[in-house]
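Recall that a protein's primary structure is simply its ordered list of amino acids. Everything else, from secondary elements to tertiary packing, is in principle encoded there. The following example makes that idea concrete.
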Amino acid sequence: MAYPRSALLFGLSALAFASPAAAVRPTAGSLYLRARAAEAFGDTPAANAGFAALLAQMPANAMITNQAYRQAMQAGDMALAVRAAHMLEAQKAVPSDARILLALEQIKARDWVKARTATELLAQDGAFGFLAPYFSAWIAVGSGQGDALALAEGGRSLPLASTYYPEQRALLLIAIGRANEASAGLRPEAVPQLPARVKGPEEGLSPLLVHVATDLGRQQYGPVGMLLARMGTYVAPEYGVGWVMLAQLLQRMQRADLALAALDHVDPSDPVGVDARALRIALLNDSGKHEQALSEALVATKGTSAGIDDWGRAGDLYLILSRPAEAAQAFAKALAIAEAAHAPTDLIWPLLLQQGGALDLAGNWPAAKAAYERSLIMAPEEPTVLNQVGYSEIEHHEDIARASAMIAKANRLRPDDPAITDSLGWVLHLQGKTNEAIPLLEKAAAGNPAEAAINEHLGDAYWATGRVYEARYAWRAALLTAEDKDKARLAAKIDTGLDKTTAAP
């Protein structure tokens, strides 16, 4: 196989027929249903409004208040989040992460007395208390009272805080006018990332929160990381890295709408503007907005700084939109830039594979074969190349023996890759060795049960050996995830069986 390219429903009907009186003064129950339904359907403004109304009606309900806080934080309604956090504090039910928000609120307000009190409470927290020494240090900078560097030393000895000490010390040194000392103790690659100026506590605390969020995301604590990233953008809205990290965490939570809204805050001229643009295009594509994603990708290719990645993204999107000829042209431009820059071969051969695939889909097999052969010369031991080139040659009835040898070599190099295992099994089936092929195809299907091509190959092989019930089961599995162009063929052989017109290509 060639590598792939590139409940609260019941509440809605009840709400639709609400009485005029209910519209004037909704009950707490109906407000809750509306808020949760809006939350479930991604209607962020309605969810926030619903929870805000609930807080007004049920200010002593800790469960409602906590849900309002979580919804507001995810959606970025920081006024509602701060309000809910204060209510949770009054209810003696404040969650650990809200302690951070309450301290940040006072730091932003420059109320240093309340900020110190909030930080003392944060220090007593078991989850995020390790942040308190750095909060204290930045309060000292902002208030002009206390030794910021000495206060930050408290974080150096805490297991969870020590990771962030070098950067925090460097930012503190810049903030207090000792920038010439800031690079000492930092990893060499971190030095160029230091800002020239740190104007206040917000610019020191935002990187801290975003880095903790990043680490939490790596440890599969994405929702918690999202909360800290959101706080990083709350305290320093101009910090582009924070918005990009927040968008990445929201993407993992399948909230593309909120992720896109976060990226709107990144200035295109920001050093992370390129990363924000790439993530935005990916989010649009993942949301099914392929045309919009392509439009934005093409804008990037028109700039004087357009590079390999810009043209490569455009090529991928052309393929998704079934425009292979234009995809091939985009990959050709990416290749030209790469070759002009004397890029390493491990950057060029993947582009050749993509160009070859696009040319093949566009009906230009000779040009596709030439691109494939170039990739094979560059990476003769790369399993992906061996599999793609070999499988494509089989599809075009080229030298079957040579193609089979390439796929067998790819399988030896990467025996647990479902795509390569499928290719090897399919080649054996085409050579009449179906009994040898079936175990390989079954292994491939177990490794990637959602891949339509693998399931179809397995079904064809089953049918050839008389296992008709299992064949139809495999074809039905293929039909679930098949591309539109393949569905009619699959449906036909499920109904009437395998023949020359319905065989897998």
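Residues 144 and 232 are 23 Å apart (CA to CA). Residues 5-24 have pLDDT under 50 and may be disordered.
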